[in-house]
Amino acid sequence: MYKETEISTKSRRLFALEVYLTSLCNENFIESTGFIHYLKKYIVDHEILFKKDMLLNIQYLSRDITLKVSKINFHHPNDFVEYDDLVFQCFSSTIISVLFDSKQESNKKKKEISFDDIGGYGQEIRKLKKEIQWCVSFDKNSKSTNGILISGMSGCGKSLICEAISFYVQNFIRIEHEEVKSRFIGETENKIKDIFEKATKRAPCVILIDDIDQLCGGRNKSGNTSVVTTLLHLMDGVDAAVSEGVLVIATAKEPQVLDDALRRPGRLSTDITLCTPTEVDRYEIFDKFIARVNGSVTKEEITTLVSMSPGYVGGDIYSVMVEAINLAEENPVNFLNLKSALASIKPRRHFDSHSNSSKISLDDICGYEDVKNKIQEAFQLTLEHGDVFDHCGISPPTRLLLFGPPGCGKSSIVMATAAKFHLAVFTVKRSSVFGKYFGESEQNLSKIFKSAREAAPCVLLFENFDGLVSGRKVGGKGSLDVEERIINHLKVQLDGILKNDRIFIVAETTRPDLLDKDVIRPGRFHEYLLISLPTEKDRMILLRKHLTTETWGNSIDKLVNISAGYTMAELVQLCNELQVSLEEKLMYLSEENGNSVDICIINDIIEEVMDNVVPNTSQRMLTKFSTFAKTYCSDGLL
Predict the structure, then answer these.
(1) Nearest to 397 by CA among 575, 524, 249
(2) Which DSSP helix (H) or strand (E) runs through 15?
(3) Secretion signal: which residues (predicted)?
């Protein structure tokens, strides 16, 4: 604790050339130019007298500020005079400087986290450490950059990494865009200038600009020109001394909106992108979280949790841990708590997708074993052996085209397969792509693929693909231009020019003959799968599942024979109608002869229902599917 010093008004006063004050509080504005001007005016106007180690208490912005006089410079014939007991007065020419208390800075640092507390992103953190080491060592020869841009989706750990940076540097200044943005012209720019001046005085120093995409977008946007220009000049450094020992680190959720000049060499030239955590990263995140709460979870159980959480970022896993702690109550967190929490916490990037905890499973889908096995094989090879494909320079089987009559279970098979591998499914329809403004459709499609890349591994399911990339020439010239641009954009995505790692693009259609031939040519899709009408075996499996043998007996075999040409959806409707008709008959018979049902009544029910539920798939449509399959499918027909 510092003791207050009493000064007699009769003491001899000397003129102070420079006064150095140390702040005993953690207010960010202490070293700002505005506060220095206010402090100097306050000292001169009130004719305050100074002694070394004395305390000065003032109010600024309704806050109590305590300052300690750490050093006083003055002119004296004897340079070695002791001035501990001398009294000084400030005048308008006196230079006043304010710095933070180093003890307070170190106490604050002890509460912060380090890079060792962060799971995953090992390569990115090592790269960041290297740049910080240059800043701390203040070595001009090892200087590699003036600025670093850390980008990534919300919850990936940008803020956490920035907090860890403050553990390794003594001087760290954080800029929140809410604090510096002002509605008054020029005030935002002045605040930024004050912060850079303060950083230069405290060099080596790290300046963190949080959410820089919110602070300064492109200069073509209204209101951003002066802010961006100011930041460009400050980062360039008007003279060499300004940029020495000052490292600028900025975070952004949408780096594409930044002005291009901010990212040229010498400014934010080093990019660190925090992508969706890999399995290794998620294992480290789970491991560190579980160790922090002293959970009782084995390594094998953590591996299982990792396989159940594709697409989860650090923020999502933190939410899972909080939910697991609530479920465990006062007991240690175990595997069952975490598994239940995973089922209830959906990744933030999957909010617009079907839940990966869908209740539908492949066992619920009767028949189509060949198709189900092929889709499962494509998913499994890509997810488990993707590095082998990369090593061989081969594209993994991630693009599938499913075609067949409506009601045969194309969407259900994809949903069930995705649920088995814990993948989110983003459904894409014509209405979610096409917009009424010029260029809006392509922008919507780009956003869909961007969201999928951030949530990978996942499934992009294009429903009614023929409505999006139809080869038909319908509508006016404007609609043709839009469809042509959509087709060209999809070609780029399907050709693999843009990297879509671990994104399964599945397109389904009931009219493959209407698809644009250039979009569906071999090479743009890896597999072409015909999901046609169910076979006799498939119909038998479905009917035995929905109709009990005790009631219907041999009539099930009869139904299998007479239901050829029905789709799966029509068969399910047929079974429901049969059950309803049977219940009505049983209610009528119970009033007269009891519950006995003979074969004649069963046959009457079947004939009546078959007249009401008729198949809608024409032979002409089946011929088109067969012709398309012979052209595109690797094994002809399925």
Answers:
(1) 524
(2) strand 13-15
(3) none
Distance linking the first and last C-alpha atoms of the chain:
84
Whether residues 413 and 429 share a domain: the answer is yes
Give 574's contacts (C-beta < 8 A, 6+ positions apart): 559, 563, 566, 609, 610, 613
Name the average pLDDT for the chain: 80
Q: Counting Cβ atoms within 10 Å, is residue 170 exposed (0-12), middle (13-18) or buried (19+)?
A: middle
Q: Residue 444, exposed/middle/buried by CB under 10 A (0-12, 13-18, 19+)?
A: middle
Domain boundary among 221, 242, 274: 274
pLDDT digits (tens, 9 = 90+) for 280-300: 899 999 999 998 888 888 999
pTM confidence score: 0.66
Confidence band for 402, pLDDT divided at 50, 70 and 90: very high
Average pLDDT estimate for 189-206: 82
Residues 160 and 137 in one domain: yes
In a domain, 352, yes or no: no
Among residues 477, 496, 530, the one where a domain terminates is: 530
Can you give the length of the chain in residues?
638
Higher pLDDT, 4 or 421: 421
Range of the domain at 333: 284-345
| Reduced DSSP (H G I as helix, E B as strand, rest coil) percent helix, strand, coil of the chain, to 5 | 50, 15, 35
Do residues 377 and 524 both lie within one domain?
Answer: yes
Does 621 map to a domain?
no
Closest by Cα among 468, 529, 472, 530 to 493: 468
Q: What angle do CA 105, 110, 113 make, to 5 degrees?
A: 115
For 151-167, write each residue's pLDDT tens digit: 888 888 888 888 888 77
Q: Do 24 and 99 reside in the same domain of the chain?
A: yes
Tell me how far apart the alpha carbons of residues 79 and 99 are, in angstroms, rounded to a whole number: 25
For residue 436, is it within any domain? yes
